[in-house]
């Protein structure tokens, strides 16, 4: 009996021990699962927060640097400058369409160079704010969606502009405004450079081309139009930078308007002939009266 009692007691103790171990295991599993769930939940929250932050960062572009702001101001001022505006048929049409000379800022922001400068920033609001603060040459409308010159455009002799302009083609590398300006600065003071690509036409909305827009760009070549400050500089560029020795790869440079002096001389001679003929007719008439 004692042995049996001992055996029963031992069994109870063993059962209790097994039960305790099982309870402990279950508790550990429960705690571990809760911890794992907590970690998973926390990780999910962190990932969600990270995704939200990433989206927020994508939507809010970095503030423009002082250098970028300066480039935007200079670019828009150039569009409305004495050098560019008179020879830009598209922009001039927009200026003349408004009684006060205002042009929608959205039109200006649609130019490729402005798109590059603005990147992901809201174009109209950004440009309006920058010009109001940093430009004395331009005026932004009260509604913040239009811009004009601060001073009236002076009279420009477009014939003189064309006489001071050369056409360059057959570049060894794709030309940029900066590279062309640097190259032609060797001939004189460059007032403006335009690079026109194959198939480029007069901008939409410009019914009558004027100034530098008068030149037709062939469909199979890139042209650069370089306007100098004097006719002598333009003539020097055509003489010194044109490479007629290498007919295949050499740079081609010519005056936009050829023989402009000869044309004016012919006009003066024709006018003189008309005046002389008129004088002879009057003299003949007076003799007949006698």
Structure description:
By secondary structure, the chain is of the alpha+beta class. It has helices at residues 2-59, 66-79, 89-97, 105-109, 112-118, 123-134, 158-163, 177-184, 231-240, 260-289; strands at 103-104, 138-140, 146-149, 165-169, 190-196, 223-228, 252-255. The chain is built from ten helices and seven strands. A four-stranded antiparallel beta sheet has the order 5-6-4-7. A three-stranded antiparallel beta sheet has the order 1-3-2. The relative contact order is 0.09. Residues 1-15, 33-45, 201-211 and 214-219 have low confidence and may be disordered.
How would you describe this structure in keywords?
7 strands, disordered N terminus, alpha+beta, 4-stranded antiparallel sheet, 3-stranded antiparallel sheet, 11% strand, 290 residues
Task: Write a brief structural summary.
The protein is of the alpha+beta class. The protein is 55% helix and 11% strand.
The tally of helices reads: 10
Please state the overall shape, judged from the principal axes of the Cα atoms: flat
Number of strands: 7
Integer average pLDDT: 77
Tell me the structural class.
Answer: alpha+beta
Arrangement of strands in the largest sheet: 5-6-4-7
The stretches of 5 or more residues where confidence is low (pLDDT under 50) are 1-15, 33-45, 201-211, 214-219
Radius of gyration: 40 Å
Secondary-structure element order, N to C: HHHEHHHEEHEHEEHEH
Main β-sheet: number of strands, strand sense, barrel status?
Answer: 4 strands, antiparallel
> How much strand?
5-15%
Residues in helix, %: 40-55%
